Amino acid sequence: RGEDSEINPIRKALENVDLEEIEYMINRLLENIPYDLYGSEEKSIKSFLYVYLYSTGFECNAELHTKLGRIDIMVRTPNGKIYIFEVKVGKDEEKAIEQIRDREYYGKYALEGEVIICGMNFDMKKRKMNYRWEKL
Predict the structure, then answer these.
(1) In whole angstroms, what is the distance from residue 48 CA to residue 15 CA?
(2) Do residues 73 and 85 make contact, with C-beta atoms less than 8 angstroms apart?
(3) What is the pLDDT of the chain when averaged over all its residues?
(4) Which of 38, 66, 100, 124 has a CA that sits 20 to 30 A from residue 32's CA?
(5) Looking at residue 112, which CATH number applies to its domain?
(6) Domain span at residue 91?
(7) Burial class (CB in 10 A: 0-12, 13-18, 19+), 110
(8) Which of 121, 110, 116, 113 is nearest to 133 (CA)?
(9) Count of domains observed in the chain
(10) Is the CB of residue 103 less than 8 Å from the CB of residue 66?
(11) Could you give the CA distance from residue 7 to residue 1 in angstroms, rounded to a whole number?
(12) Residues 56-87 pLDDT 10s
């Protein structure tokens, strides 16, 4: 059920805001997916990532509507950490984090806990995610 951090180490990394470990775990997941299962669209990467983060048992939502757009993925840990992920494919992780800031995806969570935003860009050739993090 995703509740034991020894079985699901991404839980512990999210609770502790261990950004290096989160990057490592996500890249490890993506590296182990056979190339022919990848679609050429952003939504296939988002789907893999969403299912992985959902497996933590934490509150996890995808495509959340806001006043200026949609949050790709939001995760809230029991200890009050709120992650907002914006995923791009073949673009730039800086553009992804700019989108979070420009569209104020974090707005409704600002008073609810520590907000961590993450712009992600998936490199299809290397099968690796690049990251840009900010703590608000």
Answers:
(1) 21
(2) yes
(3) 91
(4) 100
(5) 3.40.1350
(6) 9-135
(7) exposed
(8) 116
(9) 1
(10) yes
(11) 10
(12) 999 999 999 999 999 999 999 999 999 999 99
Residue 100's nearest CA partner among 130, 135, 128 is 135
At residue 122, what are phi and psi to the nearest 5 degrees?
-95, 125
By the 10 Å C-beta count (0-12 exposed, 13-18 middle, 19+ buried), 135 is classed as exposed
Q: Residue 85: in which H helix or E strand, if any?
A: strand 81-89
Instruction: Count Cβ atoms below 10 Å from residue 65 Cβ, excluding itself.
Output: 8
Q: Decide: 126 and 95 in contact? Cβ < 8 Å.
A: no
pTM: 0.91
Q: Two tokens at 106?
A: 């974090």
Q: Which residues pair with 74 in a beta bridge?
A: 61, 84
